[in-house]
Write a structure and sequence with these properties.
Distance between the termini of chain A: 52 Å
Helix content of chain C: 25-40%
Number of domains of chain C: 3
CATH topology of the largest domain in chain A: Rossmann fold
Chains: A alpha/beta, B alpha/beta, C alpha/beta
Strand content of chain C: 15-25%
Low-confidence stretches of chain C: none
Low-confidence stretches of chain A: none
Mean pLDDT of chain C: 93
CATH architecture of the largest domain in chain A: 3-Layer(aba) Sandwich
Helix content of chain A: 40-55%
Largest interface: A-B, 25 and 20 residues
Shape of chain C: globular
Number of strands of chain C: 25
Number of strands of chain A: 15
Structural class of chain C: alpha/beta
Number of helices of chain C: 19
Structural class of chain A: alpha/beta
CATH superfamily of the largest domain in chain A: Thiamin diphosphate (ThDP)-binding fold, Pyr/PP domains
Radius of gyration of chain C: 29 Å
Strand content of chain A: 15-25%
Oligomer: heterotrimer
Strand order of the largest sheet of chain C: 5-4-3-6-19
Number of domains of chain A: 2
Radius of gyration of chain A: 21 Å
């Protein structure tokens, strides 16, 4: 079935088709329509779930952790300030090994007050142990929501589906809605194994752990995050087999013979495809690499894809004050493993903060600058800023 | 690809208009994308919304800077917003107005203009209040007729899909606008 | 070596290796929680012994038919009650310490009207009994006794000297407070139950008490208080002077007594207020003359306030000394009074000052108290000063004769009469089955120590579940009001005073269903478990479990540490902590 849906409604469809059992959420622009739609679906009897109204995002995540520990498939959605408030519980979800799925609509940080898109909220959660999956279109949003449950539950690690505010959340476009029974085959009910809160066999979970064992639990998280790369690839492949749409942790577009490779994530990837085609028509040797996962970071694939390229332009719709854009940091870090001759020059760009448009023209100008400059003029370069 | 920019005021239904069009165009078998330039919504504040139509999947996800056509739900917006900014040379402007297109000669010199009394039609079908009519479905009838981006059948179907209240009245308003929109006049 | 290839022999998350159940923390306790259903103060207060908490609970869920059934276990007339009862329950309501009392009578009125508009009937489910009972007096006391006896399967015949059943509800209460169609419709249900009515029959004159005694197995007597106190002052026999009950009776019968244009009403009780308000509706001016002050008036404050709205004047600290006029009354000489010492009734006594003054009036109504007449009862029935001597259940000194209503020692209200009829019906049933009428075994079915007996509790009615009924009454300070919102009481819709004066239209209009539900939701349901789940949620040891029988919760003493959190967090005081020896 194909319908014209916004990105937020696509998230709700993803959660509904995944037969989510518990939703605990607190409304916040631009996430609100996700949980409104889920509440409507519940009221219409489309999904058999408990909807827990909470007084904050912190409680929303706490409730999801509890539900997940009780053996339920739990889901929440938030953005920006809401995700910041959730931060403590994000760490807890990982430590408790609860495969909660969270849809985060990328919203920039206040102050000054803003509701528009950038990735500061989600990249700030890089160290929480959450799998992070970025999307470029509404179809990918729906598909990724379903896949996120499968990935999270097979690893017992929480997963975040990330979509740009307004550029996806409020944009309507035709998407294919997978068949419910097919989704059920693809994603069987959550099996918590031995690790769940059984009222008939009460046990203490996550009790105080001394320094003789704490590190082992942390190490297991790291082990499973590494394993996640293979799991995500497997899930992508299985999804492609069943539903005919293939996703990648690292996707190269026209990058094979490119002198300049632009590395992007989120909706910028989508717009970049048009920009690359336009530049290629003009005879430019330019390509694009789209990153879907920030965590686990696909370092091996990145190395493989960017090895031997001359110049790599990374567009970060986020930045770490006092350092650089997060994607640029990660890529620099990974590429250092390459021998010096194979290491491309890295051009880090900061663009599109607070929902400023990253248009085809902006992408073209980034390409032209990268092509022209023999070396980057700075560790990162801010695009379109009217410096005072 | 055809790119259309809608200008309206909060409460007139510009955002929903583009959503309905996206659905209707899709029902015609083409690809579509609609997107509001989301502000902090307030009744009466200027609102911009975008629609893209193409034969192939649409990948560009940015605002529309050089629209092929313009739909203006309230011509008085020109005092606050440079409406025709970036409009392509032979673009058509559809205006919600009881006036004739020639009366917009000063405002939109050099462009092609059609007018439709969408506000009057909306009031007739009890859409919104007489002080603040919801003109979106009426103006879409004119869009279908003048721009031809969507068939009237799919438009009616799209209204039925996306407008849960007063569906019949909305459809009738679109039909009437389709029939009564003025000719396109080169100014 | 890759991370993924290593093996670690610990679980993913720190988990205790032995199940928590091995640790029977219940052995630590020196106190244990008990679930207990306490009596709400409104239930204790209700003279008719209604389960107010229970029907509020049902009404709050929109279960009006069940709510109606629960009321009619105790009281045959919910629609009448919601209109004329002076609802002292609301004075006791725990919610008044929180914000405002629950407007109980308005909810009851809605439930009563719901019963009428939906044609709800009383089913006599008990097998027919061959014993016959005579009820003398078809006022609220007699009708209540007849109703409860008939429900128990007895053959009941009701006698009354009037033409219409209802007693003072028909002849004494003006129609703007209790419309006749509501009254008749509720009484009509008693006809439908198979109660026989013999109207226009005076026992002791048309049929002798002896004849009655031989024809019937037991007799219930509720003669009412129709004797009016008079005044022996000069000129009291002039035309234009009425006694209150006679005046009201004529009005209620649709007759037009020769009233004046400027009426003085003597007295401070509800009858005086009724008469004055009736005069206003007849187009006359009305002044209430009372020998004490407003503080001492026995009339209900709401009635006084509404009388004022309708233009009734008040003259306090004055008492009639002489009636002026030729044939008819033209004025009254009044003596100024002063307040003296507190008397037996707890009010300050009026004392004469000797100072007099005159007022003009062309009519006067005496509403200075009504009395009973019990001299015609069989000599074996002992009485004193017009009050028939009975035990708690209404049994007189003649064992087969029971009494209730205004002729026994209870306050003279419709609701008290109905309550006395119910008590006597229970007593007659016991008497006819060979038990003692009065028995401490009945105490367990009372709403608290001071409350009436509940038929619902006796029969174990489960429309509103009480698993562990007790006689303890719950007060506000033993509840946990944190869990209750603050919300004002619903206000009755009264038609404007101007409209009221145009006739006898009912002055309060019925609430909407939404209003009734909303007001019922204000009820705390004091003392009763409503399965709110606080005990279950708050127990730190998960030692509160759902009752396997299906309602409420039970503590699991193996694990309960006796911390008392459940008791503290119970909003309604439906739990208590018992300290162990």
């Amino acid at each position: 079935m194909r319908k014209v849906l916004t990105g937020n409604v696509a998230v709700a469809y993803g959660a509904m088709l995944s037969d989510v059992q518990v939703v605990a959420a607190y409304p916040i622009t631009p996430q609100t329509t996700i949980i409104e739609e889920l509440a409507t679906m519940q009221a219409d009897g489309l999904v058999d779930m408990d909807y827990i109204r909470v007084e904050s995002e912190h409680s929303a995540m706490a409730a999801c952790i509890g539900a997940s520990m009780g053996g339920a498939r739990a889901f929440t959605a938030t953005c920006g300030q809401g995700l910041f408030l959730m931060h403590e519980m994000l760490h807890y979800a990982t430590g408790a090994r609860t495969p909660v799925v969270l849809a985060n609509v990328n919203r920039a940080a206040a102050a000054p007050w803003t509701i528009w898109s950038d990735q500061t909220d989600s990249v700030s959660q890089r160290e929480t142990g959450w799998i992070q999956l970025y999307c470029e279109g509404n179809q990918e949003v729906l598909d990724t929501t379903i896949m996120a449950f499968k990935i999270a539950e097979s690893l017992r690690l929480p997963a975040m589906v990330v979509l740009d505010a307004f550029f996806l959340s409020h944009t309507s476009e035709p998407i294919d809605i997978p068949d419910r029974e097919q989704v059920r085959d693809f994603l069987p009910p959550f099996d918590p194994g031995d690790l769940w809160l059984d009222p008939n066999n009460p046990r203490t979970f996550g009790g105080i752990t001394m320094n003789d064992a704490y590190m082992e639990f942390r190490w297991q998280i790291q082990r499973d995050m590494e394993k996640a790369k293979a799991v995500i690839t497997e899930v992508h492949e299985e999804f492609a087999r069943v539903f005919g749409r293939k996703y990648h942790q690292v996707e190269a577009y026209q990058a094979e013979d490119a002198d300049v490779v632009i590395v992007v994530s989120g909706t910028v990837a989508s717009t970049s495809r048009d920009a690359i085609d336009l530049l290629r028509e003009k005879g430019q040797q330019v390509g694009m690499v789209k990153l879907k996962t920030l965590r686990p970071f696909p370092r091996e694939e990145i190395i493989e894809t960017l090895k031997g390229k001359k110049k790599v332009a990374i567009i970060d719709r986020n930045f770490s004050p006092g350092a650089t854009g997060i994607w640029a940091q990660e890529i620099r870090n990974a590429l250092y493993e390459l021998p010096e001759g194979d290491r491309p020059l890295i051009y880090g760009y900061i663009a599109g903060l607070g929902g400023r448009d990253i248009s085809v023209k902006v992408i073209e100008s980034i390409y032209q600058k990268t092509l022209k400059d023999n070396r980057p003029d700075d560790v990162d370069m801010w695009i379109g800023v009217n410096y005072v | 690809m055809i790119e259309i920019r809608f200008h309206g005021r909060g409460g007139q239904g510009a955002v929903v208009a583009t959503k309905i069009l996206a659905t209707s165009v899709f029902l015609d078998g083409r690809y579509s994308q609609s997107f509001p330039a989301f502000g902090v919504e307030r009744r009466g504040a200027p609102v911009t919304a975008f629609l893209r139509v193409d034969e192939k999947p649409i990948r560009i996800r940015t605002e529309i800077y050089e629209p092929d056509h313009l739909v203006v739900l309230d011509p008085l917006l020109v005092e606050q917003v440079p409406l025709a900014n970036g409009l392509k040379k032979d673009g058509i402007i559809i205006i919600n107005s009881n006036k004739k297109p020639v009366e917009f000669s000063d405002m939109f010199k050099g462009f092609r203009v059609a007018t439709v009394p969408a506000g009057k039609i909306a009031v007739k079908y009890h859409l919104g209040s007489p002080q603040s009519p919801i003109v979106n479905t009426a103006i879409l009838g004119a869009v279908a007729k003048v721009l031809g981006v969507v068939t009237p059948e799919s438009l009616i179907e799209g209204i039925k899909t996306d407008v849960p209240a007063y569906t019949e009245n909305n459809a009738a308003a679109a039909q009437e606008a389709y029939e009564t929109v003025s000719n396109v006049v080169q100014l | 070596m890759k991370y993924t290839e290593k093996k670690v022999s610990v679980p993913l998350c720190a988990v205790s290796t032995t199940p928590g159940l091995v640790n029977k923390t219940g052995s630590w306790k020196f106190a244990e929680p008990l679930f207990i259903d306490r009596v709400s103060p409104c239930n204790q207060q209700c003279p008719a012994g209604e389960d107010i908490t229970g029907y509020m609970y049902l009404a709050s869920q929109g279960r009006f038919e069940e709510a109606w059934k629960l009321i009619t276990e105790e009281n045959p007339f919910p629609a009448i009650m919601g209109r004329v009862c002076f609802h002292t329950c609301e004075e006791q309501c725990n919610r008044k310490d929180h914000d405002e009392a629950v407007c109980i009578h308005t909810v009851e009125r809605f439930i009563g009207d719901y019963g009428l508009s939906h044609g709800l009937k009383i089913d006599v489910t008990e097998p027919e009994k061959d014993k016959k009972i005579a009820v003398v007096g078809a006022g609220p006391g007699g009708l209540s006794a007849a109703f409860h006896l008939r429900k128990r399967g007895y053959r009941v015949t009701t006698f009354d000297r009037h033409q219409k059943p209802g007693g003072l509800m028909w002849y004494g209460i003006p129609a703007y407070r209790l419309p006749k169609d509501i009254l008749d419709a509720e009484i009509n249900r008693l006809y439908e139950m198979g109660i026989e009515f013999k109207m226009g029959v005076t026992i002791g004159r048309d049929i002798t008490w002896d004849a009655l005694n031989t024809q019937f197995d037991a007799v219930f007597v509720a003669l009412g208080a129709y004797e009016e106190a008079g005044l022996s002052i000069e000129g009291i026999n002039k035309q234009g002077i009425f006694e209150a009950l006679r005046f009201l009776r004529e009005i209620n019968l649709g007759k037009k007594p020769k009233y004046g244009k400027n009426m003085a009403v003597i007295g401070g009780g509800n009858s005086a207020i009724d008469c004055a308000r009736v005069c206003r509706r007849l187009g006359a001016e009305a002044t209430i003359v009372y020998r004490r002050t407003e503080n001492e008036m026995p009339a209900h404050p709401e009635e006084i306030a509404m009388a004022r709205e309708e233009g009734v004047e008040f003259l306090f600290l004055a008492t009639p000394k002489e009636v002026h006029g030729q044939d008819g009354i033209s004025g009254i000489k009044l003596e100024k009074m002063a307040l003296g010492e507190v008397d037996d009734s707890g009010r300050r006594r009026p004392t004469p000052t000797g100072e007099t003054f005159d007022i003009d009036c062309d009519g006067m109504i005496l509403a200075i108290g009504e009395g009973t007449r019990v001299d015609d009862l069989p000599p074996s029935v002992s009485h004193k000063k017009g009050v028939v001597e009975t035990d708690q259940m209404g049994q007189t000194t003649e064992s087969s004769l029971f009494a209730g209503g205004d002729i026994i020692d209870i306050p003279h209200t419709v609701t008290h009469a109905i309550g006395s009829g119910k008590r006597a019906a229970i007593a007659i049933d016991r008497f006819l089955q060979g038990h003692k009428a009065e028995d401490i075994a009945l105490d367990q079915f009372k709403w608290g120590d001071r409350g009436n007996i509940s038929v619902g509790l006796m029969k174990g009615i489960t429309l509103f579940m009480r698993r562990n009924p007790s006689l303890e009454v719950i007060d506000y300070k033993n509840m946990n009001p944190f869990y209750f919102d603050h919300r004002p009481q619903i206000k009755n819709h009264r038609i404007p005073a101007k409209v009221r004066l145009k006739g006898f239209q009912e002055l309060i209009t019925s609430p909407s269903e939404q209003e009734a539900v909303s007001e019922a939701r204000r009820c705390f349901m004091c003392g009763s478990c409503t399965e709110c789940g606080n005990c279950y949620i708050f127990c730190p040891d998960s030692a509160i479990r759902r009752d396997p029988v299906g309602y409420g919760y039970i503590p699991d003493m193996d694990y309960c540490k006796g911390c008392g959190i459940c008791v503290n967090e119970c909003p309604r005081g439906a739990m208590k902590l018992k300290f162990m020896e």
